[in-house]
């Protein structure tokens, strides 16, 4: 949610993205994979501020800033450049990013940062949320940026450009665990091993998504993350982490998010999630461990 900090400085949160499901439906002749993913967001994330009227640039700080890579390659600046190419005279400014999410973990931190930059620039320049140039810049910036720009639970399809209307989810609480090593999205898809033109399934209907907790868990059990198996072949520790999370008291489901190494455990009760996070963080101090609510 965007808020004014003072007369000039604007702020937006860039929440972590969680892929509750991730089905790979096929590989197109052009090499891109067609996906179907139920995506939601968390109550934690990075923070991005924008000060209009000062030289355009980006400063990065925060607990995971060292993982963010070179500033010139940051998706915040890429998204800003892409929007500037489409909006003549776009007013820019100075960005300040506080990184709290791990990089390369499948939580879409960079994509969410880029989406926050687009929302802030839209506000400064008086662009409506449905301006097609925002959507074009988002998709060009990365496959996950459009759903992060939307910022609500949705089913994402295609290469990220097809979004369902917002979906209603029951109250869900999660423990997110980053084991400290990144996974390359490219390597995971290569390990999946689809040939161009190969199909693996058909999309589901939006109406098939249950809104009650038990029905949703049944849906999640039937629609997993197709990238888990190839990720585990590359990094067996991912499978060990999922098994550990599944044994936590109160855990309803444990899974990998996206194509990264971060895994999550779902709970019905926020206290159970908080207790599990405390236990894991104490026993594995080198891990990034957070308890959070999921956006409904």
Automatic annotation (TrEMBL):
Entry annotated with the keyword Nucleotide-binding: yes
What reaction is this protein's catalytic activity?
4-CDP-2-C-methyl-D-erythritol + ATP = 4-CDP-2-C-methyl-D-erythritol 2-phosphate + ADP + H(+)
Instruction: For this entry, list what GO says about its biological process.
Output: isopentenyl diphosphate biosynthetic process, methylerythritol 4-phosphate pathway; terpenoid biosynthetic process
Annotated residues for binding of ATP: 102-112
Instruction: Give start and end of each GHMP kinase N-terminal domain.
Output: 74-151
Its UniProt pathway annotation is:
Isoprenoid biosynthesis; isopentenyl diphosphate biosynthesis via DXP pathway; isopentenyl diphosphate from 1-deoxy-D-xylulose 5-phosphate: step 3/6
Q: Does the keyword Transferase apply?
A: yes
Q: Which keywords does UniProt give here?
A: ATP-binding, Isoprene biosynthesis, Kinase, Nucleotide-binding, Transferase
Q: List the molecular function annotations (GO) for this entry.
A: 4-(cytidine 5'-diphospho)-2-C-methyl-D-erythritol kinase activity; ATP binding
Q: What is its EC number?
A: 2.7.1.148
Annotated active site: 17, 144
First-level EC class: transferase
- Cross-referenced InterPro entries: GHMP_kinase_C_dom (IPR013750), GHMP_kinase_C_sf (IPR036554), GHMP_kinase_N_dom (IPR006204), IspE (IPR004424), Ribosomal_Su5_D2-typ_SF (IPR020568), Ribsml_uS5_D2-typ_fold_subgr (IPR014721)
Q: Which domain of life is it from?
A: Bacteria
The record's section on Pfam families has:
GHMP_kinases_C, GHMP_kinases_N
**Can you give the residue ranges of the GHMP kinase C-terminal domain?**
212-278
Its family remark reads: Belongs to the GHMP kinase family. IspE subfamily.
Q: What does this protein do?
A: Catalyzes the phosphorylation of the position 2 hydroxy group of 4-diphosphocytidyl-2C-methyl-D-erythritol.
Q: What is this protein called?
A: 4-diphosphocytidyl-2-C-methyl-D-erythritol kinase
UniProt source species: Rhodoplanes roseus
Please state the gene responsible for encoding this protein.
ispE
